[in-house]
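Example 744.
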Amino acid sequence: MWGRIIRGGRVAVSEDLPCNLRLIRNMGGGPRTFPGGVNKWQWKRMHEKRARDKQNRLLQQEKQLYEARIRSHIRSTLSPDHQSSAAATHRPLSPHNHVKALADRFMKDGAQDLWNNQDGPLTSPSPSTSPTTTRKINTLPLDLRKIVSQISKRGFSGFGYTRDYRSVSEVNTNNNNTNKRFGAKKRGFWRDDSDGSSSSESECEIGCERVSSVASLGKFDVKRERRAVPKSVEEGREFSEQVELIKYELNKRKLSQIQEEKEGEEQQSVLTQTRFDECGISPLTVKALSSAGYIHMTRVQEASFPICLEGMDALVKAKTGTGKSAAFLLPAIETVLKAMSGNTSHRVPHPIFVLILCPTRELASQITAEAKVLLKYHDAIGVQTLVGGVRFKVDQKRLESDPCQILVATPGRLLDHIENKSGISLRLMGLQMLVLDEADHLLDLGFRKDVEKIVDCLPRQRQSLLFSATIPKEVRRISQLVLKREHKYVDTVGMGCVETPVKVKQSYLIAPQESHFQLVHHVLKEHILQAPDYKVIVFCVSGMVTSLMFHLLREMKMNVREIHSRKPQLYRTRISDEFRESKQLILVSSDVSSRGMNYPDVTLVIQVGIPPDREQYIHRLGRTGREGKEGEGILLISPWEEYFLAEIKDLPLQKLPLPDIDPQGKLKIEHSMAKIDNDIKEAAYHSWLGYYNSIREIGREKTTIAELANRFSESIGLQRPPALFRKTAIKMGLKDIPGIRIRR
Ligand SMILES: Nc1ncnc2c1ncn2[C@@H]1O[C@H](COP(=O)(O)OP(=O)(O)OP(=O)(O)O)[C@@H](O)[C@H]1O
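Predicted structure in complex with adenosine-5'-triphosphate:
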């Protein structure tokens, strides 16, 4: 207060009165009816000035709020996080509405006193008219009212530049009176200057710096404090800088996106950072692992090893080609080492400590080979294979002469040995660990009975491990046949994640059955052109259709081999080994190669006809893109097999357009097909009919299946469909079905 009002109009004037008022008092004259000795008019003018100042202050605050809104708008458009948090906070006015309200206020009649020299032609157009201006504002006079009305009409983003309300404020550092004004800026409009006000939103970003005043108001034009704006805010102040800021922010987002993708890829990558030598594995095994080039664990190995080592039962799911074999072989070796160092081994002569069951002979040989690699420096531990296709007596002799602690077997042959009392049952009494590789397949109808019988002959006190790339729900239930109730479930694929390798490009072709052979030939030719080091597996629906495809491709002068269950074991082993080592080779195969087979660098997998189920599709496809490498898979189906796509709809398959097959190629195929023995074709017809008849969705329509089979028979160049044995026809439910011929 400048003074205390005393009853009767007398005032005790304090020395902190503004000097102009003290002057008025000292001048004397006129009625002293107002505090400070000012007359009525002086009092009125003083109050008007104070009201104007107050209004200017309020206006300044609104301008700052507007600035803050622009900044927050930019931030919210750049950052989705900010956007969501902004949405959650209280927002009284949208930026557009705020500008509009501000503009309305400016345009109101009687608002002239809110305008200053730079604002427009209402008052003096030039700021230089002020006698006390220390620095000329070298901008064009502008009509602020016009601009503001444009803003309010066009809205927030109507201008080609970013509007920026800045003020030039003249601050009297003594009495804190402010006389703020809009400053003219470069690019024709607003002056870039600072303000000394305290918007809460800007304050958090603003620091302090001493600068000289740009406008002057006589003695009020003194050095004043300017809020120094940090770089990030300053960047946003001018249009070009804001563009730069936006560019920078976008780049930052792009970079973080790339980073995220990279992280995703890393996650998808098969190997982890965990080293074998830091996991408590026997040093001799680590040595063998190092010489095989294994330094870091794969994800499935890292996830399952500690559980397996603890002795817990486990059901483990991991994508194809991610190192499941080593994931169970390493704990198996540790189990043997532990058992050999303990006393338990003495109770049973030549005990088998670990039994590994798998569905095919080739897979058993492959697992044995991998075990031998890991056992390179463990001279005392032996591993043996027990599979069909070898004479029983030979097996027996080998088992006796070369006792082993790890046995890899297919269920059928092992059961033969158990039932024939070859001595293996006794040796299995020392069993500590049972492993089921491709567990879902082994617990499937085809193998389940054998597996159950085998499990019945094994000691109950054992550890059981089940591994597969696919574990359907039913299998999880059935797994209780083998696993303890309190087993662990390890899933490195993840719920809802794609079950196939990410780097394998998957597609499908729908074409009439009759054109399938031509299409396979066409796709192979195209692939060979694109991938000189090609290595292709063509899966067919049955062994005999595999044989027919092989003969046809061989007639077409392609470098091709065949493998299926009708071939002698020695031949199968030779072909399997050859394909493992080779490049520029095509392997036509039945499902004997679909699971577990580790043929390195397969470039393409073609599946001709639908696989028996979704799981088999995944396993066949999994022969390519192993160890996180790239690969390609094509599924070729007939229009009536299209329903199968629903079973794999969650997998990333793309539909391919039907390629044009040149008539010459078509003729060549027909010509080659004509050269193939009728026996092969008839066998192919029978096995084709047997396969599709066994598929529920197709096989239940007997008339349809007979028709489709006849079309297949025609497409492979048979004069008429081969006849079935009566017994077979009855078994298949095809007796008396039109189109099915019965042998007399
Ligand atoms: N830790 C490791 N470091 C490097 N390579 C590894 C490692 N573990 C396994 N491999 C290699 O990864 C390849 C695939 O392994 P494996 O055959 O065990 O896969 P899988 O998961 O059993 O596949 P599938 O489901 O088809 O049976 C093999 O060549 C194997 O040598």
